[in-house]
Amino acid sequence: MAIQRRKISVIGGGFTGATTAFLLAQKELGDVVLVDIPQAENPTKGKALDMYEASPVQGFDAKVVGTSDYADTANSDLVIITAGLPRKPGMSRDDLVSTNAKIMRSVTEQIVKYSPNTIIVVLTNPVDAMTYEVFRTSGFPKERVIGQSGVLDTARFRSFVAEELNISVEDVSGFVLGGHGDDMVPLVRYSYAGGIPLEKLIDADRLTAIVERTRKGGGEIVNLLGNGSAYYAPAASLVQMAEAILKDKKRILPSIAYLEGEYGYQGLYLGVPTVLGGSGIERVIELDLTTDEKEALDRSANAVRNVMKVLAQ
Ligand SMILES: NC(=O)c1ccc[n+]([C@@H]2O[C@H](COP(=O)([O-])OP(=O)(O)OC[C@H]3O[C@@H](n4cnc5c(N)ncnc54)[C@H](O)[C@@H]3O)[C@@H](O)[C@H]2O)c1
Ligand SMILES: O=C(O)C[C@H](O)C(=O)O
């Protein structure tokens, strides 16, 4: 029997969607279907063809097609949702909730129709609430609906620490819990450089500044870009999660997972450490938190709950 390549659909062919599609193809994680609205069909086809034409030069074997027809996504192994509005300077991610929730509902119905057994990874903001909306609309089991925030937030933290210590980013590990907002909880106590706790290497004041910069990392890029939000690091983060799932790597990566009692929360999508593998979220890892850390996580969880109230209206 012929072995078939994996199929990955990326919904939304804008900055994050197109960048993700290209990285997925470059890593030969599967053939990629890039989907956008009918009005954007030609540019989407153009981007996909352009990517495919890079394959002989870069030496990757992956087909990339652009479309507005969900029939082309049928039987996807993985679907990544990037469709929706990004914020502009002066906006919070939460300002996007109503518009992007409608988009989540419509794209999820199409995804489920054509790929009822797929795993969905959501990027669209406000991502904790949007992941919940996709979960609710899809009717999928919780392990097959996952949100991306922690890989990106941790990557920002690791970059800033590496810069501070003038060391390789590879040797820095970070740990960010909570919602993808300014209340996220970077946990310095669980962060290391070359196995050495960061608190032994960086002054408390500097560490506080790095934590603050991480929390506001998305806004820093929004202000620099002027019209849109980050896409290179978000796309790289999606691809790391996709690789863990498609190759059943069982990596410990932070994901936005549906909590039913873990960390004391019920019925909430929130960023936590997880094991990501072929079934999606295979396990949520629970850790003991100090009183201060739990209070910070509660603030972040409350911020997500407040956004979710809009969905209930
Ligand atoms: N969770 C994260 O860490 C993270 C990181 C980066 C961006 N984001 C979010 O991802 C989303 C996309 O960001 P972007 O920079 O790619 O924006 P973008 O404007 O470049 O692209 C969005 C694309 O979605 C398409 N779209 C809109 N409605 C659609 C629909 N119904 N079906 C299919 N496609 C549709 C648009 O035509 C556009 O091409 C935003 O909400 C942004 O805030 C989240
Ligand atoms: O900041 C944004 O609006 C986009 C994204 O969530 C990010 O953190 O870069």
Automatic annotation (TrEMBL):
> What protein name does the entry list?
Malate dehydrogenase
Q: Which HAMAP family match?
A: Malate_dehydrog_3
- Residues annotated for NAD(+) binding in this entry: G12, G13, G14, F15, T16, G17, D36, N100, L123, T124, N125
Q: Please, which domain of life does this record's source organism belong to?
A: Bacteria
Keyword flag Oxidoreductase:
yes
A single GO molecular-function term is: L-malate dehydrogenase (NAD+) activity
Q: Does the keyword Transferase apply?
A: no
InterPro entries according to UniProt: L-lactate/malate_DH, Lactate/malate_DH_C, Lactate/malate_DH_N, Lactate_DH/Glyco_Ohase_4_C, Malate_DH_type3, NAD(P)-bd_dom_sf
Tell me the protein family, please. Answer: Belongs to the LDH/MDH superfamily. LDH family.
Annotated ranges, domain Lactate/malate dehydrogenase N-terminal:
7-147
Tell me the ranges covered by the Lactate/malate dehydrogenase C-terminal domain, including all copies: 152-309
Instruction: List the keywords (alphabetical).
Output: NAD, Oxidoreductase, Tricarboxylic acid cycle
Q: Which organism is it from?
A: Seinonella peptonophila
